[in-house]
Design goal:
8-stranded parallel sheet, disordered N terminus
Length: 289
């Protein structure tokens, strides 16, 4: 067993008034896309009521966090101005903050959007560029006293070694966070599955996920419906990748994921429950739906 596998879990982080105790179980983040061009086909642009209904259902199905995004991050997607992104996400976040009893996350790499979302009720910032596009995102989170997710994004970067490149990127994100006043203890890290990797590299990332424990931070992994899964399954479209997603989620949990970010919350919450029972231990008295 390696040192990265045996080290103690990171200290708990409070998100939206709830303590997330890493190592106790896997937490589930539900994806709510208020975009017209989501790769997974589940975008709900400008339909606040539908986004709220989807979020409520995700909560009932076992989501611990709802992650709201207003700009597609699929390859080749057009950038969205901050004003339009806010027009999409702020009404949804305002409703969720009032009506839902779970933390709401804003999926953005723009400081202006992060600030507006926090003011609307978001209690976590999820930055797919790990503060490397706009370092001010970390400053906004720090000023508001909310934690943040820093993802390593390999797009446009030279490849050397899968885990080595992730380590380099996330170490830089943690440095930026500190420089911007956001304590490292408030940062969750994400290796960036499918963000600039070949299918082989993305799969290697999951196999070697435990090596990232050396960073000492909670790990968020987002494999849900991704193209690598479709490729392994012979080119299946996003809506037919449920079983493949389940396999990837289970492996991620076995290798140290603390949060899994998913579209199919009901099914993946069940996968996480069984994976946790195997990885962390289980007694009959803990049985649940």
């Amino acid at each position: 067993m390696t040192a990265s596998e045996t080290r103690l879990p990171p200290a708990p982080i409070t998100i939206g008034g709830r303590a997330f105790a890493w190592g106790s179980r896997t937490y589930v983040m539900g994806i709510v896309n208020v975009t017209p061009d989501s790769f997974s086909g589940d975008g709900l642009a400008h339909d606040v009521d539908a986004a709220v209904r989807q979020s409520v259902q995700m909560r009932e199905d076992g989501a611990d966090i709802i992650d709201v995004g207003g700009e597609s991050t699929r390859p080749g997607a057009a950038a969205v101005p901050a004003e339009e992104e806010m027009r999409r996400v702020i009404p949804v976040i305002q409703r969720l903050a009032r009506e839902l009893d779970v933390p709401v996350s804003i999926d953005t790499y723009k400081a202006q959007v992060a600030q507006a979302a926090i003011e609307a009720g978001a209690t976590l910032v999820n930055d797919v560029h790990g503060f490397r596009r706009e370092p001010e995102v970390a400053r906004v989170a720090a000023a508001a006293g909310v934690p943040a997710v820093a993802m390593h994004n390999q797009r446009g970067r030279d490849f050397h070694d899968t885990v080595g490149d992730i380590m380099t990127g996330l170490t830089e994100s943690l440095r930026i966070a500190r420089d911007q006043g956001l304590a490292e203890e408030q940062v969750i890290v994400d290796p960036g599955f499918n963000f600039g990797w070949t299918e082989e590299q993305a799969l290697e990332m999951l196999r070697r996920l435990a090596e990232l424990r050396v960073l000492g931070r909670p790990l968020l992994v987002g494999v849900s419906r991704k193209s690598t899964i479709g490729a392994v399954l012979g080119g299946l479209p996003a809506e037919e990748r449920l079983e493949g997603t389940a396999a990837a989620v289970a492996i991620a949990i076995a290798n140290g994921a603390d949060i899994v970010r998913v579209h199919d919350v009901k099914e993946m919450a069940r996968v996480a429950k069984v994976a946790d029972a195997i990885v962390r231990g289980w007694t009959k008295g803990e049985a649940g739906a």
